[in-house]
Structure formats: structure tokens, C-alpha cells
């Protein structure tokens, strides 16, 4: 088998009915055109061929795996080869590795003895002479055991090489490097492994999980290889397409080509795709099992080589290829002969044409009609050239007119589009203006409602409860039949003092002779000399004089507020007249309970009129 130099020619064990394969580097030859397998192969059935092996990614190694013929489907077995698994892997991979320790002893091997122990294909075997399968397997097993015992186990460091690819995405108007799209036909993906030929969108797709999940095997982390030719600081190598990377395989940066590196400005037009190589080193123990696992990882690389065929199929293919080559060679000779004859005929024709032209020129040189025709031909040629120049100018003008017309049409379309956009904006402005108008009407209505709303009417609610005047539900006055507690009376007087002080503050005026000190149930009145009088009582005789003086001073403040209201609004008339400590002709001083209660009711009525005036005016 020439496609895989690490494997010996196969021996046909048995012929099994299998469909012909459709994959390969050349066209499939029909099974009927191939010669049948030797009849002696049925006698050399091997224990390894207990069941047909499915056509999957299997690796042939020293007779331990089975292949089928690529053409006829016959079951094949590979003979033992003295080439070590390391050498087989090195022929599949172009990745160098190094040993951690050197051999302490040289491996003792007798190649001649091994060749005698190992079963080889002979001419007799090719001609159909078969040996006993059990003896062959025993001899091969003995040789393998001896070979494995003599082999020294050496730990090795193998670099994992992974290509990372990206492409330039300019769909948004700005060039952004994104991961390469998966293309199974061309074998392009974001990541591709140099060790095993697999591709994927992440490193876990190209490096087996059995290796990634064993951190003790790894000697380093993933690093960027900066030894590639024309790579930048990030290790990226740029190209116009992924196909251009094929010519850059294996190029590394050296002293000779360091000066020939392209600058980023020189390759700006070629920066459509890029890739870089990632390296991470791992250790293997050097046992046969480890190297065999490495060989299994190379299955993708192995399948890229020529698939195995049996001797009869290979001979038939060589015969057919030789026949096709002979036919192509014959056609090539015929084409060469035809080209030679055609060249000779052209040369003869040119030579005869020159001779005839000289003879005719000498004969018609003195003919006046011929000279006239030649002159006419010259003039016509000049006219034709002038017409052609004019045609070119007209064509150029026509193109300019067409270009101007196209520009005008685009301008018209742009104008209509802009007009539609402005119309849309106008509609939005109208809607917004209408919305603002509706909101303004609502706000005006709300303002009018708020303007008519009087907070003081809620804070200071003045009403009556029979003969008693009330402010915020507190009764003001005393009757023999209904003795009101002085605590309630003092609280009502405190509310009245606070109301009158609020009216003076909102109207921005000061009382002429007195000053109010609102303190709730313990409010006071200060006269013009600065003396304070308590506007609260407990019903005792000792504080009655000061309480009556405070009531008179408070009534004077009510009278000052009434004068200010009638001054600003002359049409305002209070229902009760206030003068000299009396209101409506009743004394405000504590004496007769009935008169005092009625006078307090009149005073609350006066305060309610003042409250209505201040709400309307301010």
C-alpha cells in the first residue's frame, strides 16, 4: 500500500460480501471488473476475523486491527511491522516531540532474528499459498512480546498545536474580527487541531476531554506561537482568504526573512481572515498503551491518506490507469503533430501572399483608376474616423445625460422621502400640540379648582352646636345647664388665636397695639407695653381679671383685622359691631354665662367672615 508507508501490504483473510466504497482519491472501479480473490484464502481464516468489522475509523497496528478492501470489500489483515508506533505517529504528524529522560541502556534488538520471527508476504503467498492461521498468530504474538520486553519506556513531551481562526465582519459598517464560521466542506472552523486534524468551534471540540480533564499531564498553559512568519504582536497571521494559508504552512520567523516581513499598511487590503497557533505541552509516560492512544488520535489524519486495497484490486487499478495514460499520451502526440502541420501551412500561406502582392503592385502601380480608388478609400477612412470620434463624443454626452438624469431621479426620490419625513414630523408636532392643548385645559381646570379650594376652611372649621359656637368641634362658652370643661374652652381659644394670627400673616399686616402668641391651650396676648396676659383659665377667681383683660385685647385684634378687611374691600360689612370690649352689644369679659357664651359665638362669626375675606383676597 503506497498511501500509508507505515503499514505492510495486506493479506486477504476471507472474502465477505460488502457494498463498494464511494470515497477515495480516484474513481470507483466496479466489482465485476476485478479479478476474484485466490481460492486459498478460505483455508487461512484467522481468529481475529470472527465477525465482519464495520467500515469505521479503525487504525491498523501490528495485526491488531482489520481493514476491508477499498474496492471489493474483502477483509484484510496487516502484518506485523518492526517500525515503532512513535515512528508511525511521526510519519502522520509533522510535530516534533522531545524525551524527558535519555535511555539508560541501548535497546538490544536483533533485526535479522525479528525478520525471521515475523511472518512476511512472499511470492508464494501472493500466488495463493496460505499458511496455518494459528501458527502464524502464535509466532506473531511471541515476536511482539519479545519486542515489547526489549523496548525501554521513555517519557516524552508532546506539544498540542491548535489553530485559531477569525474573519473580518463589516456588515455593521465597522470592521470587527469575529470567530470563523463552520464550513465542513472546506474544513474551516474557529479551532482546528494539528495533532489529530479535528475541527470545532471551541478547544474542547478538538482536544479530547480525557486529556483536558487530567491537569497533571499538562506542563504549561495555552500560549501564542510568535515564531510564525508575518505574525503581529498577538501572533495573528493575515490573508485574503483561508485558501491562502496553505502556502504559509510551516513558515516561521528567522533571521533571513525578518527583514522581508510586510508592514500592516502593506497588507491592509489582504486582511480579511486571520489565524494564530496556540501551543500547550503535555507529558506521556512512553508506554505502548500511551503511544497506541496517540496513534488512535491520529485516525483523522490517517483517513486522509489512501485507503487500503487488496493485491488484485490494486493490480487492476494500475492496469486501467496505465491504459488511460497511454491513451492520453497518444492524444498528446496527435495534437503535437496537428500543431506542427498547422504552423507549416500558415508559413506557406504568408509567403505566397507576399509574392502575389509584389506582382500585383508592380502591375497596377501606373493605373489612374486604381490611384483614384485608393485616394477615395483614404478619404472615406478619414470620414469614418471622424464619424467614430463624433460617435464617441455623442456616447460620452449621452452617458453624462443619463448620469445627470439618474442623479436628478435620485434627488427627486430623496426630496420626496425627506418631504414624507417632514410631513410625518409635522403630524407628530400637531399631535403633540393637541396633546399640550388638552393638558393645558386640564391644568387650567385643575388650577381653578385649586384656587377655589380653601385650606383654612378645613383647618379651622367654624360652626355651632346649639347656643355654643364651635371651632374644629371645640365648644366655646359655658351655660349653667351645660357646664363645658375649661380644658375644651382653653383649646377652642387657642384655635381662635391661631386662626387670627394666620389671617394676619397671610394679609401681611400687624396689629396696632397688641401681639398674639399662639401656644395651643396656653395662648397669650401681649399689650403695647409688653405685658403678657393669659388667654386661658381654670374657672378660679384669682385669674379671672387677667383672663378678662386678655379677652378684651384679643377682641381688639379682631377689630383691627376687620378694619383692614373693610379698608381693602369697602363692600364688606360685618354682622356684629365691635367696640370697647363688646361685640354686638355683649361684653366679651367673663361674667354672665349666657351673655358671655353668646358674645363668643358672635366673635367666631366675625372670625369666619375674616376667613372668607382672606380666602377670596389672598
From TrEMBL:
Residues 308-447 form the Atg6/beclin coiled-coil domain. One of its GO terms (cellular component) is phosphatidylinositol 3-kinase complex, class III, type II. GO terms for molecular function: phosphatidylinositol 3-kinase binding; protein-macromolecule adaptor activity. It comes from the Eukaryota. Pfam families: APG6, APG6_N. Residues 450-616 form the Atg6 BARA domain. This is Atg6 BARA domain-containing protein. One of its GO terms (biological process) is cellular response to nitrogen starvation. InterPro entries: Atg6/Beclin, Atg6/Beclin_C_sf, Atg6/beclin_CC, Atg6_BARA. Gene3D superfamilies: Autophagy protein 6/Beclin 1 (1.10.418.40). Belongs to the beclin family. Residues 109-135 are annotated as: Disordered.
Amino acid at each position: 500500500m503506497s498511501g500509508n508507508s507505515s503499514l505492510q501490504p495486506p493479506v486477504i483473510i476471507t472474502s465477505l460480501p460488502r457494498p463498494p466504497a464511494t470515497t477515495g482519491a480516484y474513481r470507483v472501479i466496479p466489482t465485476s471488473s476485478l479479478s476474484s480473490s485466490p481460492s486459498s484464502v478460505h483455508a487461512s481464516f484467522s481468529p481475529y476475523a470472527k465477525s465482519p468489522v464495520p467500515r469505521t475509523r479503525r487504525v491498523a497496528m501490528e495485526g491488531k486491527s482489520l481493514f476491508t478492501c477499498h474496492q471489493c470489500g474483502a477483509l484484510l489483515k496487516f502484518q506485523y511491522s518492526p517500525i515503532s508506533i512513535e515512528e508511525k505517529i511521526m510519519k502522520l504528524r509533522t510535530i516534533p516531540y522531545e524525551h524527558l529522560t535519555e535511555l539508560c541502556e541501548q535497546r538490544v534488538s536483533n533485526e535479522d532474528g525479528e525478520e525471521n520471527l515475523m511472518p512476511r508476504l512472499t511470492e508464494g503467498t501472493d500466488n495463493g499459498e496460505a499458511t496455518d492461521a494459528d501458527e502464524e498468530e502464535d509466532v506473531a504474538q511471541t515476536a511482539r512480546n519479545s519486542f515489547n520486553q526489549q523496548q525501554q519506556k521513555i517519557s516524552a513531551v508532546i506539544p498540542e498545536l491548535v489553530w485559531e481562526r477569525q474573519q473580518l465582519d463589516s456588515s455593521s459598517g465597522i470592521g470587527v474580527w469575529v470567530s470563523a464560521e463552520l464550513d465542513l466542506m472546506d474544513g474551516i472552523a474557529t479551532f482546528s487541531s494539528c495533532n489529530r486534524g479535528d475541527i470545532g468551534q471551541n478547544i474542547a471540540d478538538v482536544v479530547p476531554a480525557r486529556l483536558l480533564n487530567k491537569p497533571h499531564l499538562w506542563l504549561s498553559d495555552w500560549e501564542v506561537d510568535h515564531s510564525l512568519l508575518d505574525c503581529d504582536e498577538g501572533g495573528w497571521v493575515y490573508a485574503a482568504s483561508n485558501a491562502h494559508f496553505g502556502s504559509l504552512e510551516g513558515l516561521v520567523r528567522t533571521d533571513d526573512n525578518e527583514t522581508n516581513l510586510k508592514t500592516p499598511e502593506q497588507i491592509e487590503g489582504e486582511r480579511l481572515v486571520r489565524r494564530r497557533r496556540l501551543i500547550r505541552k503535555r507529558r506521556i509516560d512512553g508506554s505502548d498503551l500511551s503511544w497506541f492512544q496517540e496513534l488512535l488520535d491520529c485516525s483523522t489524519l490517517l483517513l486522509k491518506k489512501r485507503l487500503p486495497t487488496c493485491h488484485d484490486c490494486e493490480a487492476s487499478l494500475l492496469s486501467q490507469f496505465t491504459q488511460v495514460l497511454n491513451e492520453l499520451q497518444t492524444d498528446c502526440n496527435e495534437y503535437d503533430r496537428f500543431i506542427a502541420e498547422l504552423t507549416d501551412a500558415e508559413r506557406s500561406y504568408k509567403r505566397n501572399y507576399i509574392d502575389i502582392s509584389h506582382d500585383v503592385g508592380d502591375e497596377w502601380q501606373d493605373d489612374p483608376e486604381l490611384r483614384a480608388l485608393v485616394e477615395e478609400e483614404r478619404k472615406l477612412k478619414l470620414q469614418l474616423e471622424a464619424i467614430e470620434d463624433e460617435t464617441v463624443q455623442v456616447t460620452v454626452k449621452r452617458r453624462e445625460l443619463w448620469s445627470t438624469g439618474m442623479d436628478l431621479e435620485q434627488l427627486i426620490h430623496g426630496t420626496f422621502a425627506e418631504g414624507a419625513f417632514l410631513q410625518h414630523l409635522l403630524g407628530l408636532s400637531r399631535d403633540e400640540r393637541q396633546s399640550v392643548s388638552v393638558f393645558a385645559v386640564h391644568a387650567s381646570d385643575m388650577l381653578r379648582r385649586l384656587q377655589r379650594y380653601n385650606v383654612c376652611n378645613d383647618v379651622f372649621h367654624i360652626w355651632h352646636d346649639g347656643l355654643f359656637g364651635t371651632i374644629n368641634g371645640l365648644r366655646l362658652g359655658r351655660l349653667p345647664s351645660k357646664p363645658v370643661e375649661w380644658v375644651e374652652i382653653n383649646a377652642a381659644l387657642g384655635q381662635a388665636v391661631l386662626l387670627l394670627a394666620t389671617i394676619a400673616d397671610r394679609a401681611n399686616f400687624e396689629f396696632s397695639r397688641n401681639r398674639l402668641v399662639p401656644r395651643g391651650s396656653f395662648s397669650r396676648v401681649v399689650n403695647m407695653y409688653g405685658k403678657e396676659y393669659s388667654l386661658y383659665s381654670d374657672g378660679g377667681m384669682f385669674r379671672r381679671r387677667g383672663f378678662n383683660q386678655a379677652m378684651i385685647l384679643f377682641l381688639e385684634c379682631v377689630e383691627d383685622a376687620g378694619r383692614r378687611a373693610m379698608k381693602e374691600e369697602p363692600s364688606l360689612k360685618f354682622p356684629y359691631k365691635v367696640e370697647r370690649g363688646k361685640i354686638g352689644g355683649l361684653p366679651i369679659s367673663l361674667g354672665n354665662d349666657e351673655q358671655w357664651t353668646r358674645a363668643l359665638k358672635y366673635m367666631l362669626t366675625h372670625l369666619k367672615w375674616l376667613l372668607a375675606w382672606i380666602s377670596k383676597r389672598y
